[in-house]
């Protein structure tokens, strides 16, 4: 199917809109409503606006676009909703309709094309940008800018720089095409997706994920032809490019006989598990997308569902866990990360209040809507500080970047780690 054939599909469908009974139980679960107290910036209010557009009673205009784009798409409302409204599907479709119908200013189109079509799917361009960022950090320029507050002279640039992801060399791209054998008897054959920015900014996390899977009897393949999963594209309404990347991933992985496709990024996992929604009416990839989506497992979900290797060393520290929105609300995975943390000897786990309320990351939301994201982050860090952990743990690279900024600005500069990094550390401690 051509991109134009999806135009009628890539908009909120009336059957999905009609599931909302306007009860309002979603309001308190919505970060933007909690911040602003404005009905049109709540899930119920946004669905009302989508209905108005769908019926022809209202046109897509500036106000509608503003309210739809201010949504974090955290999907907390889905957990709160008694009617099973798939709000994430609706808001992504609304953004796709905006993208298809409303021309953006030339400079906005240029930036979006550079980021979404030129950078994220390109291994070469990610390496170039990552190398430049790594050099900036290595020369101490980033630390100097933070110490002097120089960037604060340029509006919100100083706050936005706090969210710049680190660059780790060598990148994880060097492992593409490799197969890592299981330690001991092989129990599973899995494929692992490296992501896009994570290959540069979370290369060590990806390597830790491979090691933990190996410890648990997995032969781990890093498919060479994989690409960015398309999650950021779907969230931004750029579905034609998301479908192009999804096809590439399915072609790279299906048919190889893997037991699972593993991701350590909750935001990516939600989109990967929902590929079938992108190809619902595609005769060539409809069945493939269903098959692929069934194979996808978040690393926490996978490890908690097998007989975990318990040869773990002690980690004497106190941690708290921040639920990634797309893991807790999108994939309904809550108990599994906590189960893994509690399996580590010596670890003291303290539950923070409101652990499943969004931290304000939401893909690139914290860059585009920085003021809103920082207000949400400040409240999140107040919850973290109430339990006073030595380390903050989560299950999504985007959340890690946001929480690291929060720890610097509002906390005690505690380390922020992924669940799998603690498992990797515990396995290494046992060996020592």
Protein model, in words:
- Helix 12 (203-215) crosses helix 24.
- This protein has helices spanning 14-17, 31-36, 43-55, 62-69, 76-80, 87-101, 106-119, 123-138, 141-148, 157-161, 198-201, 203-215, 231-236, 239-253, 266-273, 275-278, 286-295, 299-304, 325-330, 335-342, 365-368, 370-387, 397-410, 419-431, and strands at residues 179-180, 188-192, 218-221, 260-263, 296-298, 317-321, 347-349, 391-394, 416-418.
- The radius of gyration is 21 Å and the shape is globular.
- By secondary structure, the chain is of the alpha/beta class.
- It has a 5-stranded mixed beta sheet.
- The protein has 4 domains: 3-101, Alpha-helical ferredoxin (Fumarate Reductase Iron-sulfur Protein, Chain B, domain 2); 106-161, no CATH class; 172-304, 3-Layer(aba) Sandwich (Rossmann fold), CATH 3.40.50; 317-431, Rossmann fold, CATH 3.40.50.
- The chain is 52% helix and 8% strand.
**Number of helical segments with 4 or more residues:** 24
Shape: globular
Tell me the β content: 5-15%
Query: What's the count of strands?
Result: 9
Separation, N- and C-terminal Cα atoms: 55 Å
CATH architecture call of the largest domain: 3-Layer(aba) Sandwich
What would the average pLDDT be, to the nearest integer? 92
Query: Spatial order of the strands in the main sheet?
Result: 1-3-2-4-5
**Given this structure, which CATH class of the largest domain is correct?**
Alpha Beta
The value of Rg in angstroms is 21 Å
The name of the CATH topology of the largest domain is Rossmann fold
What class do helices, strands and sheet pairing give? alpha/beta
Helix percentage: 40-55%
Instruction: Work out the count of structural domains.
Output: 4
